[in-house]
Structures are given as structure tokens and as C-alpha cells.
Design a protein that fits this description.
The protein is of the alpha+beta class. It folds into 4 domains: about 90 residues, conserved putative lor/sdh protein from methanococcus maripaludis s2 fold; about 90 residues, Elongation Factor Tu (Ef-tu), domain 3 (Beta Barrel); about 55 residues, RNA polymerase II/Efflux pump adaptor protein, barrel-sandwich hybrid domain (OB fold (Dihydrolipoamide Acetyltransferase, E2P)), CATH 2.40.50; about 60 residues, Helix hairpin bin (Helix Hairpins, Orthogonal Bundle). About 25% of the residues lie in helices and about 40% in strands. A hairpin with a 2-residue loop joins strand 17 and strand 18. The chain is elongated.
Length: about 350
């Protein structure tokens, strides 16, 4: 009997122990907690994409002033940096010989004109033959041509500014002998500055004449100036596939001059009131379909989307979600459709 009671007690103890173990095992086998995800609401923004290209500032109107005849420089009063107006005398060559030759040709021309007038009167009165009259006409024409030639050579001794602008280069000094076609000065119009840059053949179709751009000049600490596309060249370099684009500088500033390095920022696309989410919210499946996870009632839902423009930070959503969706931006990599989640708002 005693042995019987002892067995019953042992059995009860084993049952109690087994019951305790079952309770602990059940607690240890509970599933992991729902993943925590960070969400944002889609928002409306103006999106724009830009293209940056660099080039050198130049003048559209720069004239190299050269000597038309040989001569000694007797006067040159302008230096680099001096502003001149069109027609100003900037260089004077010794004109003593050309002036004397011009005066001689002028006297001969006047005499030839008087002879021609007398010949016409005599010819009308039939006092000279037609051949004699034609000879006098021809001689007058030759004399006139010589006169015009000598006058041009004389006028070449006085060199005037061909355009209004600034002297950017001076090659000679007073007393130098200038030969024909020697470079004397360079005059640059600083009010008509351009920047020529090269862009990819894939990006050029997005640019149009008249589009405004921003120009950054490194020499002045990255100061920005307004510009406008003047022209997009109609041909590409066959080796580089780059297309030249010429940009006019709208902002006028005395600090800007040819030769400075500049960066041009083109706006290639713009979308107003676009529905956007951060770029890290958009995922792509193996089939190339783009999707996001939208959270509703603490559950992540897989949503296929259609995207539009993209910038460094945001991507446009054309279809698939609305402004009222909570979109996962962090923690989406481990999710599946209808996964329970814990929300952490961004």
C-alpha cells in the first residue's frame, strides 16, 4: 500500500514537472516581434533636373587691329584695360610720305577733271574726234583711281577703333616699325560675353534657344550670374558625340572678362506639383517592376507604382499610391506583402 501511494506521488510530481516545462516551451516558441519601419507621406513638390557643363568666357565681338601699311608708330595712347569708342584714334603711323603722295595724286586728279570737262565741251562742238575724247576720259579714270588709292594709303596711317570696347592686348609701342598685317592691338566688346560649352548628344535635345541658365564663376567664390542659351549647334563632334552650346551672359558685371572659367547649370526638365517620395522608398523586383510598401492598420502592403522624373533625393509617382498613403522609407528590404509592422514616423 505504501509503495502504491509512493508511485502515485511520483506520477503527480512528473505531471507537474511536465506541465511546467510545457508552459515554458510555449513562451519560448512565440514569433519574433513585428519589424519596425520608418514611413513618410507622399508630398507635392516642384521637381527639376539639371545638367552642369563647364567652359571659358569669351567675347562674341573681338577685333584684332592690324597695320594696313608699313610705317613708324608715332602715337599710341591706349593700354590694356582702356575703354575706347568706335571711331576713336588709337594708333597713328608716320604719314609724311603717304600724305605727300596723296596730295600729288589729288592735284593730278583735279587737272584730269578739268581736262575732261574741256574735252566734253569740244566734243559736243565737234572740235575733237570721238577717239580723242575717249582717250581723255580713260586718262581721267586712271588718274581718279590713283587718287583713290593714294588717299586710302594716307588714311591707313590713322588707325581708329573698329568697335567700342576695351583694349585687351597691346603688341607695339611708340617708335616701333609696323609692317603690313602686323598685330597692333586687340579690342574686345565686354558687353557681349558668351560661354561655349559642350553637352552630350543625349542631353542636347532637352535644351532650347532662350532657356535661362545659371552661371557660376569660380574666380569670384562661386558667385552666380544669369545667362540664356543663345544657340544649340546643329551638329555633334563625330569623335566625342558632344554638341556645342553657346550661352549669353545676361548679368553685366565689370569683374567678368574673357578667359575666366565658368560652369553653366542647365535646367533640363521641370515638373510642377509633382507627387513625390524619397528615392529610397522605391524598390525594384527581379522583373524590373517598381514598387513601394504602403502601411495600413500596422500592415505593410505591396503596391506596384509608375514613376516619372527623378532627382538626387526624390522620385515622382505617376500611379499606384496617393497622398494619403504611408510609404515605407526604411526597413522595407525584409518586408513581404501583408507583413505586420511597427511604425516609426520619419
Amino acid at each position: 500500500m505504501i509503495f502504491r501511494f509512493l508511485l502515485i506521488g511520483i506520477s503527480i510530481s512528473i505531471v507537474v514537472l511536465l506541465g511546467g516545462c510545457s508552459s515554458d516551451d510555449a513562451e519560448g516558441q512565440q514569433g519574433p516581434p513585428a519589424p519596425r519601419v520608418e514611413v513618410v507621406m507622399p508630398e507635392r513638390q516642384t521637381l527639376s533636373t539639371t545638367l552642369m557643363s563647364s567652359g571659358t568666357i569669351a567675347s562674341r565681338n573681338e577685333v584684332r587691329v592690324t597695320a594696313q601699311i608699313e610705317g613708324k608708330i608715332t602715337m599710341i595712347e591706349v593700354e590694356e584695360g582702356d575703354r575706347v569708342d568706335e571711331g576713336d584714334i588709337i594708333v597713328q603711323l608716320d604719314d609724311s610720305v603717304p600724305h605727300a603722295q596723296y596730295r600729288e595724286a589729288e592735284a593730278s586728279y583735279r587737272e584730269a577733271k578739268r581736262n575732261l570737262e574741256r574735252s566734253e565741251q569740244l566734243y559736243e562742238r565737234d572740235l575733237i574726234s570721238e577717239q580723242e575724247h575717249q582717250n581723255i576720259v580713260a586718262q581721267a579714270q586712271i588718274t581718279e583711281a590713283r587718287y583713290e588709292y593714294r588717299r586710302a594709303l594716307y588714311e591707313y596711317t590713322t588707325i581708329r577703333a573698329p568697335i567700342s570696347g576695351v583694349v585687351t592686348y597691346r603688341a607695339v609701342d611708340r617708335g616701333d616699325i609696323a609692317s603690313q598685317r602686323d598685330l597692333l592691338l586687340t579690342v574686345t566688346d565686354l558687353d557681349d560675353l558668351v560661354i561655349r560649352v559642350n553637352v552630350s548628344e543625349l542631353e542636347a535635345p532637352q535644351l532650347s534657344r532662350g532657356d535661362e541658365v545659371m552661371v557660376t564663376i569660380d574666380a569670384y567664390g562661386g558667385d552666380k550670374f544669369k545667362g540664356r542659351i543663345r544657340r544649340v549647334f546643329p551638329s555633334a563632334d563625330p569623335d566625342t558625340r558632344l554638341i556645342p552650346v553657346e550661352v549669353d551672359l545676361i548679368d553685366k558685371d565689370d569683374r567678368i572678362f574673357p578667359g575666366l572659367f565658368a560652369r553653366v547649370e542647365f535646367q533640363t526638365q521641370r515638373r510642377d506639383n509633382a507627387l513625390v517620395v524619397p528615392v529610397n522608398a522605391v524598390l525594384t523586383n527581379p522583373q524590373g517592376e517598381r514598387y513601394v510598401y504602403s502601411v495600413n492598420d500596422d500592415t505593410a502592403h505591396y503596391k506596384s507604382i509608375t514613376t516619372g522624373m527623378r532627382t538626387d533625393d526624390y522620385i515622382e509617382i505617376l500611379d499606384g499610391i496617393t497622398e494619403n498613403d504611408k510609404v515605407v522609407v526604411r526597413g522595407a528590404a525584409s518586408l513581404r506583402d501583408r507583413t505586420p509592422v511597427q511604425l516609426t514616423e520619419r
